[in-house]
């Protein structure tokens, strides 16, 4: 005869309950990461500098080699579904840029976005 232990069942139920909570957390983290990315891209579009975002409240650290080299962002489109990258979210973004010499171009870029412990947006240097 198999004997049931109340503690075992409580542990199993708690474990199953915690598994159900992960989806909401992932969605919330994804929404927060998207909002953080939008904040950075809108600042670039307005002509702000990455340094201005770092001085903001809350501070937002941004690293994008095109932005730092003087390109202007005229518009962008963020893909709908980010992917998890460890604790961060990875977004694909189509950028419409104008070079410092005035030449218009389109690029696809990948951004890693962190929302904890600090806000950060980092462009994948391979994109």
Number of strands: 6
> Regions with pLDDT < 50 over 5+ consecutive residues?
1-24
Secondary-structure content class: alpha+beta
Rg, Cα atoms, Å: 20 Å
On the 0 to 100 scale, the average pLDDT is 84
Helical proportion?
A: 25-40%
CATH topological fold name: Nuclear Transport Factor 2, Chain: A
Beta-sheet strand percentage?
Answer: 25-35%
Architecture in CATH?
Roll
The CATH class turns out to be Alpha Beta
Q: Compute the number of structural domains.
A: 1
Gross morphology is: globular
| Number of helical segments with 4 or more residues | 3
User: What is the ordering of alpha helices and beta strands?
Assistant: HHEHEEEEE
The largest sheet is: 6 strands, mixed
Distance between the termini: 62 Å
What does this structure look like?
The structure is a single chain. By secondary structure, the chain is an alpha+beta fold. It has a single domain (6-123), classed as Roll (Nuclear Transport Factor 2, Chain: A). It is built from 3 helices and 6 strands; from the N terminus they run H-H-E-H-E-E-E-E-E. Strands 1, 2, 3, 4, 5 and 6 form a 6-stranded mixed β-sheet that branches. Strand 3 (83-85) and strand 4 form a beta hairpin. The protein is globular. 18% of the residues are buried.
Question: What keyword list fits this structure?
Answer:
alpha+beta; 3 helices; single chain; 6 strands; disordered N terminus; 127 residues; Nuclear Transport Factor 2, Chain: A; six-stranded mixed beta sheet
